[in-house]
Design brief:
42% of the residues lie in helices and 19% in strands. The longest helix is centred in the N-terminal third of the chain and has 26 residues. It has 419 residues and is of the alpha/beta class. Helix 2 runs parallel beside helix 13 and helix 3 runs parallel beside helix 4. It starts with a strand and ends in a 14-residue tail after the last strand. Strands 7, 8, 9, 10, 11, 12, 13, 14 and 15 form a nine-stranded mixed beta sheet that branches. Strands 1-3-2-4-5-6 form a six-stranded parallel beta sheet, sandwiched between helices. The N terminus is likely disordered.
Length: 419
Amino acid sequence: MTDTKDKSNGLSRRTVLKGLGAAAAGVIAGPAFIRRASAAEPIRIGVISPLTGAWTVYGKAHLAGMQLAVEEINAKGGVLGRPFKLVIADSKTEPRIVVEQANRLIRQERVDFLAGTFSSAERNAAGPVVAAADKVLLYPTFYEGQQQKYYPGVCNENIFMFGPVPSQQVWPHMEYMINKFGKKFFMIGSDYAWPRVTNEVTKTKLKELGGEVVGEVYIPFNTPQYESVLRDIRKAKPDIIFHTLTGSDTVNFRKQMAAAGMNKDFTLWTVDDEEVVTSGLGPEVSAGTYVSFDYFMTIKEPNNKVFLEKFRKRFGKNALMDTVGVAMYNAGHMAAMAIAKSGGVSSHDLRAGLKGITFDQAPQGPVTMRALDNQAILPSYLMRVRDNWTSVNDMFEQIEMFKSVKPKDAACTGLPLKA
């Protein structure tokens, strides 16, 4: 069930009838009547997706993952006899808008919990809102990890992370990449928290393995030209270009790199380009690139085959799914499991129910929400973009995978994290 319209806080027909029923039935019969009536009321989920703005391309899968999960849950009777109902908000890819929408969803729409936001900046914008209101936020995106200095955007007992951190997305595959291509890394990323912290974590493991960084540069958003950066890369002679650019900057850099003939001279490893981005780049630009994530549409996982059949039936045979959309799907199902487990929908119930829960039917393979620090234990896949690919069906070649990768412990003073 989906609701996208703003509503007032006026009394509904159901609320009036509940009040009349309680008054007529008397003190003894009243509570039983109210329990039966409220059991049919929807559990309201406020979803904040980037439906317009710079990350609209991700917004479709982001929202579709949650919509599919909710439809599956409701088809089986909902949770505790109550259906899920989505109340959808557009972040417009702006943290300022996230604050407005999170407040509206909590205060006016009276949602039971939130799911979504896309970037770390959006999540950090929502952090103070959910902390003040004591509402749970289910966050789906791959991110930089948790450090106390960024509280309440992270290290927040009300925020549960369903996407991978660098210790899951990068670390498992570094030995393979170094052994195959070499130990010299040139790091290029967008100029904000996720690329910078991802590179910090990557450098820790690189140093352990005897590697070195021969260049590191951070690019302002919407940079059109990369001639000077490409010259710096040629001069540094890296074995691997480690790429954490995002959005249009990915497209601009990668196309200019290919036009300069550098695709043949250097190996590029990215932790940002899955099916959606790679489809936009095309085979001439993307071929030979290495990509690591917890999910790809082409992984040979039985759960994924079943998931994609349902996804394509619902959204069309050419619809694209990605790691963030799958995380939203997992978050929806795991929230339902948590509510059923705890027997309630309060923030306390949801927090308690989510801790330690495992979703065996996750498309990428079983996913567990770690009680220690609200981070997910996930599979990790390393893929190579095939030469002359024609669609998502033949886009990636699977190089290696790890079934269950634990994240680096959150660097928090709060949360449980005492164990």
